[in-house]
């Protein structure tokens, strides 16, 4: 298949570029692990693209999905049916994590992504489905990236060329390397590719979802979160129970919650616009999804 992009310098084939990237850095991925690439698979459309591209490139790789305990049932079933998928289950559920943190996850404090969704892959060459067109934050991303181990370390963006390989070899012992093969693709490119390959994708897309994430994700719009809980009422009940336990644990630990009397009040605040800072109200920023 060819996905053509017309530029001032001529025509480029996005599929060929993505496959070339995967093949170019496979040797480094194998140097970091005999299993090759660590493909971060979420169950979304972009993840399906990189999964299929790895097969087309015939590079050695492993598919890894981090189960978050708040994935939509449709996503859970879809992921489990993916051939050769490895599913990693967390040591703690979202419900226990809420109690431990003493607050609901928010757009500002996204501990759920760090502790549940972004686990694993350290010291590996990680393949993601990140695309520039998805958000303002992702627009600054590059095809190849170097991520240090410490929380304070800054990401170093590396351009996609052969000279990059030397830098990556020097950094691989102390860093996690990231490859974003479809970084330039837009939504139309993604769907054209999946249709051509016969990939039906996550059924949530047929239900009107544009992005696939956790049920109740604080990065989604208020409208989307209400739809999430209308479709998954048991998740709403579990969040409310977790908030009740959070309040009880907080009081027992000497922390007073003056604004919330029970889990229902926490939940009502959590899915309202009141929980969204004014400077980012209305913005949709799934920074590490799909």
Overall mean pLDDT score?
Answer: 85
* Rg, nearest Å: 20 Å
Count every beta strand, where a strand is a DSSP E run of 2 or more residues: 9
CATH architecture of the largest domain: 3-Layer(aba) Sandwich
CATH hierarchy class name of the largest domain: Alpha Beta
Compute the number of helices.
11
> How much of the residues is beta strand, in percent?
5-15%
Number of domains: 2
What name goes with the CATH superfamily of the largest domain?
Answer: HUPs
Distance N to C terminus: 22 Å
| Oligomer description | single chain
Largest sheet: 7 strands, mixed
Overall, the morphology is globular
The unreliable regions are: 277-290
Helix content: 25-40%
Biggest sheet: strand arrangement: 5-4-3-6-9-7-8
The sequence of SSEs as H and E is EEHHEHEHEHHEEEHEHHHH
Describe this structure in words.
This protein is α/β, with parallel strands linked by helices and 290 residues long. It has 2 domains: 4-202, Rossmann fold (3-Layer(aba) Sandwich), CATH 3.40.50; 222-280. Helix content is 38%, strand content 13%. The chain is built from 11 helices and 9 strands. The strands form 2 sheets. It has a 7-stranded mixed β-sheet, with helices on one face. Strands 1-2 form a two-stranded antiparallel ribbon. Strand 1 and strand 2 form a beta hairpin. Helix 3 (45-57) packs across helix 8. The radius of gyration is 20 Å and the shape is globular. The chain starts with a strand and ends in a 20-residue tail after the last helix. The model is unreliable at 277-290 (pLDDT under 50).
């Amino acid at each position: 298949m060819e996905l053509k992009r017309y530029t001032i310098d001529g025509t480029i084939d996005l599929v060929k570029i993505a496959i070339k990237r995967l093949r170019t850095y496979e040797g480094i991925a194998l140097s970091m692990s005999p299993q090759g690439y660590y493909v971060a698979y979420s169950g979304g459309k972009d993840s399906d693209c990189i999964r299929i591209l790895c097969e087309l490139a015939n590079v050695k790789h492993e598919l890894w999905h981090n189960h978050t305990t708040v994935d939509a049932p449709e996503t859970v079933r879809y992921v489990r049916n993916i051939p050769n998928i490895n599913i990693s289950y967390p040591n703690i559920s979202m419900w226990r994590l809420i109690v431990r943190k003493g607050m609901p996850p928010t757009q500002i404090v996204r501990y759920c992504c760090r502790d549940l969704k972004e686990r694993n892959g350290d010291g590996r060459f990680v393949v993601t489905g990140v695309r520039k067109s998805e958000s303002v934050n992702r627009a600054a991303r590059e095809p190849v990236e170097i991520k240090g181990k410490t929380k304070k370390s800054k990401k170093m963006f590396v351009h996609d060329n052969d000279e990059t390989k030397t830098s990556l070899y020097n950094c691989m012992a102390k860093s996690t390397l990231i490859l974003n093969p479809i970084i330039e693709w837009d939504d139309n490119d993604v769907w054209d590719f999946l249709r051509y390959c016969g990939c039906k994708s996550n059924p949530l897309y047929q239900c009107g979802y544009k992005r696939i994430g956790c049920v109740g994700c604080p990065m989604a719009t208020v409208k989307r979160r209400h739809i999430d809980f209308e479709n998954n009422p048991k998740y709403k009940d579990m969040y409310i129970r977790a908030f009740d336990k959070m309040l009880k644990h907080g009081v027992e630990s000497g922390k007073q919650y003056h604004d919330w009397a029970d889990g229902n009040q926490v939940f009502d605040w959590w899915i309202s616009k009141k929980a969204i800072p004014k400077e980012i109200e209305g913005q949709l920023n799934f920074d590490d999804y799909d």
